[in-house]
Design goal:
heterotrimer; A alpha+beta (288); B alpha+beta (158); C alpha+beta (773); A: 288 residues; alpha+beta; Uridine Diphospho-n-acetylenolpyruvylglucosamine Reductase, domain 2; Uridine Diphospho-n-acetylenolpyruvylglucosamine Reductase, domain 3; Enolase-like, domain 1; four-stranded antiparallel β-sheet; 12 helices; 34% helix; B: 158 residues; Ubiquitin-like (UB roll); DNA polymerase, domain 1; 2 domains; five-stranded mixed β-sheet
Chain lengths: 288, 158, 773
Amino acid sequence: MKSTDFDYICPSSLEEVIQILDQYQGEVKIISGGQSLMPILNYRLASPQLLVDLQGVADLNKVSISSEGTTLGARVRWVDIENHDGLRVSQPLLCAAIDHVAHYQIRNRGSVGGSLVHADPAAEMPGLAVALEGILNLHGPQGVRRVHAADFFLGQLSTSIETNEILVSIELPFWPQDRRWGFAEFSRRKGDFALAGAAVWFDLASDGHAMNVHIGLIGTGEKPMRLLSAESGLNGRTLTESMIESVVHQSLSAMSFQGDIHASEKYRRALMLEMVSKAFAQAMRPIN
Amino acid sequence: MQVKMTVNGKLFESDLAPRINLADCLRHEMDLTGTHVACEHGVCGACTVLVNGDAVRSCLMLAVQANGQSVVTVEGLSSDAELSALQASFRKHNALQCGFCTPGFITTAHALLTQEPNCDEDRIREVLSGNLCRCTGYVPIVQAVLDARVAYQQMGVK
Amino acid sequence: MAQPILKPVERQSKNVGSPKERIEDLRFLRGKGIYVDDVKKQDVLHVSILRSPIAHGLIKNIQTDEAKKLSGVVAILTAKDIIDRCGSVPLIPIRLHHNPILDSYKQPVIANEKVRFVGEAIALVVAKTPAIAEDAMGLIELDIESLEVASDIETALKNEVKLFSDPKGNSPLTYRSKKGNAQLVFDNAAYTRKEKFVIQRISAMTMETRGVLAEWKAESQELFVFGAAKVPFWNRAALAQMLNLDKNSVQLIENDVGGSFGARGEFYTEDFLIPFIAKTLGVTVKWIEDRLEHLTSMNQARDCDAEVEIACDREGRILGFRGHMHYDLGAYPRTNGLVAPRNITQFLTGPYKVDNVDLSCDIVFTNKTPSGTLRAPGRFESNFFCERLLELAAKDLGLDPVEIRRKNVLTPKDMPFPFPTISPSLIEHTADTECDSGDYRETLERCVKDFKWQELQHLQGQLVDGVYHGLGLSCFIEGGSAGPRENAKLRLEKDGLITFSVGSTSVGQGVETVLTQIAADELDLDMTQIVMLHGSTTLLNEGWGSYHSRSTVMGGSAVTNATDLFKEEIRVRASAVLRCDPSQIHVSAGVASSSQGGSVTWNELVSSSPIEVMGTFASHHHTYAYGCAAAHVSVDPKTGRIKVLDYLVVEDVGRAINPLTVHGQLVGGTVQGMSGTLLEHIVHDEQGQLLTGSLADYLIATATDFPSIRAVVLEQYPSPLNPLGAKGAGEGGTICVGGAIGNAVANALSSLNIEPTTLPLSPLRVWEMIHET
């Protein structure tokens, strides 16, 4: 399982990276942490002519937190998120979800940007990007293109990034401290990809009604998505466990799910319902 | 491509094809065969080495990516004179049988105990879940790492 | 009828019975183990193997011109090259339970005109680096005419798709075990119950993949092959024969081995192909299996189904078993594919006193990776069938699960207890076997007590905090110490170094340490004064190896025979020096002393010539370790997830030479069994394509999956069959897991009337059992 031959370059600026991408027109792959790309290369599922290593480009791994929101550089690693005290406060749902990603060694290398561009439908980060309504900053020869997460993911392992663009960062909206949130994921073993996962959040109005309900689904099989019909079914209402289950059940029944050796369509749907319910149960616990 | 890295404290320089991964480089260019290759797709952890102190899967890293970095393998954590505290704990608890996964467990456990000498059993199991063992059933490995904490605590590291 | 060979002699036990830390660990922990890919040779070329992308087809053409032009490619070989050199494509012999019925089913060392499974070797690329060899593989054009695929037992049995031209079709052989009169018993029994069971296909998934390094020394016309394991002597003979070389010109060298579990070390196609390339091209050449190859071409196992019936009296005493089974062997019988179907048929009654048996098992060939033995072959499967049926019987008869087992397990008054005769059995002494010694109630009682079985009964079948709790039991036997023989050479050199060379091989089980413990005690030496070499054919003329949990008993007993012969020789030499009768000489700890006075050191006695003796131990009788396991599981009805909350296995091994390593075998075997019961599944689609081609899909247990495993080793009933009193004990932990977990899950879900009969018990399957039936 040795990869095909390729050239390698380690540019020291973003401009240089973009220039190379533009020049090679798709025969090039960006390598950041390599945790998703290297297995693909070793299985010879891709044979790029050139690998462009981002480790020489400065400032792609910054975490900035402000009253506008949180920006994660594309090269921010899972271990960086795990160890960032500020993020636990500014983006608690993100942190809770990222705790589930992969394993110790992978977390030292795997990156936010790598996961987003790889777009595995069972991965946590793409699901979070959609659930949190992140904005992805894509830099290309024409400048910066800001793409909403919902428009970025097109399908399994497929995004709207152009061959001459590089993902530089993702912006997550400001997160109020009294926001309710929950995350639940079901995987065969710890660190495995999710068979089903849910990232849920909402705000509570003073009359106890839920507003801004967001239900992000991971592991549907195709791409990360929000359960929009359930969201509108729950918005403006005082949430109860049975109401949630009933609304979500109805929405999920109208969707199709991918079946594979680990989960049939029916089972995946049942798991999804269970994960959404658990995430809501977590969200509805009083804040300490 | 010219590659220069520090491995177990020694400088290594060579001209390498970019596609050679760090595991194969250590094993075949540097004769450090303690790092084992068992899956080449980042699941089993047998190839774990330390890069700048972080445990990483060397099969998922290109040798050229280690340019300018400091790499420590199981050989770098060993002395001929005597077993380290971690190694002695593994031996005491019979935490290895065929030995093929062992270097990966040693490097991973060393990284963990260096960073978190007070880690509990749940954390140990969580971290070690990224290393596969087919022989021991993990029970003695976890016991060995638990017992080895004392030595790392005494070192006063972090 | 088992005759005691030797009474275990009371010996000064300084090392035997002691939890000695392993010698092997000193190099393994430092990364200084030498596995086959670590062996250093000059000018090594690398081989990549082009394997069939389809499961069944006729090879029309293999176009290698483009591939050959690639810089760094040295040669590309196919069946044609082998036929040119050897006259025909050699077939891999059947090592165990060979039957001439299967002669036309044997695996060719390379696909010749036909491919029968995805992963079958078609062409060999020899190049300067493994990467270049793989590049060249991508340039080879294969023209294979697709044939219909028989990817499962049901399809294969129809014989519409035939893998072989032999008129016997895809199921040429049936094993049968008979005892007493099952027909009569079933006709008259107060209670009978019949169930269907299915067990999934799994892979050995050794951490070290396979590898072969072959070196042809033209000057001496000798072939050296590295990477040997398990049964190197047999493999050497097979290889020599295929290459038309004298046995003594072929040496198989055993280095460190990264796990076998029965799968590594059998003779595979590569064990011919790589040496063939070395000899043909006159080069040193290496092939290291990658993980994808491993998942398609390393022996797989377990894939079987059964419809079995139990008959009991009203009090729950088992009167008989009968039924029919099918074992899917994949595309070829391999060297030892027959072991599992044979075992499943002969050993289904396990640890229970059952006098009437009529069981049969068809072997079935399908277009999948060939199968061989995997830890507890046929024993894991049959334990599942037996234990599930017994649990159902207990339920139906209103009996306590402990009580029904208590009534039926073997006790000393039953010993020796014969298993049913298995047929066909062309080698007479292999048709029958019997449990040698023990009180199987003891391990049951000990397990129940230590597990706090009675105290936990209030949880049985209860829904607590959203999950169902269940407790299950499984009693088991573990057959070990397969014959026929093992050899151990002992040599004392002038320099005083005592070196043993034994035919036992390492599979990671600590054979070096265990045998050294035995030798050290026999000679009253320190373990550090002894060198224990093993496995390589350079060490001995004849050896057997490690399989069927035999290396401690067979190798260890050969070691004691060697030390006995050595001491005799010392006595003879010393008697000349000390001028007394050899019977008056006491030999111990490097010294020979006369009861008449005077002593001489061993070193002095070998100053003119070394001592070399050949110890041996022969036995056709298997030992039977036995035990019981208890499991406490929770089942989440919403997700189907099973959690093993607690698990205890108790095994009586007769005598534990090294309690540390024996305990390690029990725990390791248990987790491997858990992995095989709940996680692992080699899945092929209808076209015989492997769907689980990576470790992201083929799931094995990790450190977080089964944290609560406990094991207890007992030594209440030594075996009367060998001087050590030991019983083979490498597989017991695995054997009982399916039964214990299956029963626990059944009990957890008893309020839902769900009875698991199919493995693996994945969350998907459990969920479907709950929600879709």
